[in-house]
Amino acid sequence: MKKYFKTVITEGVLIGLVFILFIGRVNAQTAMINVQARNTTSLNGKWTVILDPTGAGDYKQVWQEKKPQKKTDFVEYSFEGGPELDVPGDFNSQLCELTYLEGTVWYKKQFDYTAKPDRRLFLHFGAVNYAADVYLNGEKIGSHEGGFTPFQFEITGKVKNGENALIVKADNRRLKNGLPGYGYDWFNYGGITRDVNLIETNETFIEDYFIQLKKGSLNTVSGWVKLNGANLQQSVEIGIPELNLSRKATTNEEGMAYVEFKSAFKLWSPENPKLYKLVIESKTDTVSDEIGFRSIEVKGDKVVLNGSPIFLKAVNIHEENPYKRARAFTDGDNRLLLEAAKELGCNFVRLVHYPHNEKMVKQAEKMGLMVWSELPVYQHIQFADSLVPQKLETMLNEMVRRDKNRCGVIVWSLSNETYPGTPNRNEALIELTQKCRALDSTRLIVHVMNTHSYDNNTFNVWDPLYKYSDLIAVNEYIGWYIPWQGKPSETRWNVSFPDKPVFISEFGGEAKSGSAQGPTDEAASWSEEYQETIYKNQVEMFGNIPNLCGVCPWLLFDYRSLGRMNLVYQNGYNRKGLISENGEKKKAWFIMNEYFKRK
Ligand code: GCU
């Protein structure tokens, strides 16, 4: 009998532990969209922090903020007396002792709140890299994994009248089964890198909507509105005042209402980035947005914008302000990067290798720059790990949900340079492609590959995933990682799926601005002349690539990547920029600028 009780107790404890672990891992909600149009209270500004490189904070349960109760008590942590960090902003660039941290920083923010009847309160994060555990007044409210997409928690009923203590554990350690995984060629900026807001809503509010032209149409919008709350069946109205257009609909028991309407829209394009004010009203909420209408599709071997073929003049951009040596997040940071792209002659920006901040996408749209948004499914991903498929789907939902109303976004890129031999890679990415099409049938969906071979001056482009990709997106570094095997003008391209448009999503080579030490015709000189020659040869090769629909040099600015350890030329920088981190245009910049002018 005694043994029986022992077993029962053991099992009970185990079940209890699993339950606590599950609660502890309460995942964040997929965030409501268009935060800027909501009733928000910003929590940006100075937050006090505890630096926790050894990860002791979990064991000490610092979120409880224990205080000595007796004369003999003492507590070996406190948020008082420590440094402060700016939120938003990566922590690495704010404190010298954090420069290379891949670990934990505990952030704390006090805020006052007065609860109002029939109002709900949400805590919204633009992004925390890489993982976040969030505590309110000593209680864990949930966690989120993924460094580049928004998430939220409802804190109605958990927030106190008066002063509240919000504590966030931000941990940018790499995970083998993370997205990205262990290895990536950019700086791992950690922390609360984007805005934090309290969002107050009515009991039932407009949580999500999708208002875009139907695929292939130039005048018909097919969209929907989704409510969240107890009173889900309401009438909703969608209006575009400038067009004197208004449509009513009634949401169903799930809070969904579908609309379809026509109009002679002025179509959004790089030349005329026309946006309309859109107002969505329900009985209990109103949200306004700025929406553009355009059609993007592939027709045969062409990319077609608003019914006309377009050549994609692109450039790769990492989310880093080169002058600040920090994660970019301000309007000024975004404009700096996008204006440099415009000056180069671009009509398209590939925002690598993760979703950039929401304001960057909106700014690009306003400037007439089409946008390529990409998931951090980068190179070595553990596709066979049991947790990865869910991580892929969650991050896909978060990326598409946030920006699906941004007509400037024309491409969802679901992977970069993954390898065909990786277990479950094809299956996982085919499934992810299908999920993306189900979420959004209006945009191009691509996978970027570098699984080519180059023999006898013939460049062979193949990968099973190209069957599922709207573009043949190729990263190739002929002239840098792989020497030319003959005249560039005679390089033959042999592309599997020959009927699809070919987009060169990366090409180029390194140069240290002003460097001409040693023979300039040798790669190891890191000379601008060597890089310039790569670009001249690439441009020569472009002329004989079948179905070429666009090119995208790697990349706009030199940027930080700690694996680049040549201490004469790199010093922790990837030097493939057309512009140095000090704003100096390299000789190759002018080759690219001339090419884009001629297209
Ligand atoms: C790869 C990769 C980039 C990387 C680049 C390089 O193609 O996509 O992220 O920085 O090559 O080696 O510089």
Automatic annotation (TrEMBL):
GO terms for molecular function: hydrolase activity, hydrolyzing O-glycosyl compounds. It comes from Gaoshiqia sediminis. It holds the Pfam family Glyco_hydro_2_C. This is Beta-glucuronidase. The keyword Hydrolase applies. SUPFAM superfamilies: (Trans)glycosidases (SSF51445), beta-Galactosidase/glucuronidase domain (SSF49303), Galactose-binding domain-like (SSF49785). Keywords: Glycosidase, Hydrolase. Residues 296-536 form the Glycoside hydrolase family 2 catalytic domain. InterPro entries: Beta-gal/glucu_dom_sf, Galactose-bd-like_sf, GH, GH2_Domain-Containing, Glyco_hydro_2, Glyco_hydro_2_cat, Glyco_hydro_2_N, Ig-like_fold. Residues 42-201 form the Glycosyl hydrolases family 2 sugar binding domain. GO terms for biological process: carbohydrate metabolic process. Residues 204-294 form the Glycoside hydrolase family 2 immunoglobulin-like beta-sandwich domain. Belongs to the glycosyl hydrolase 2 family.
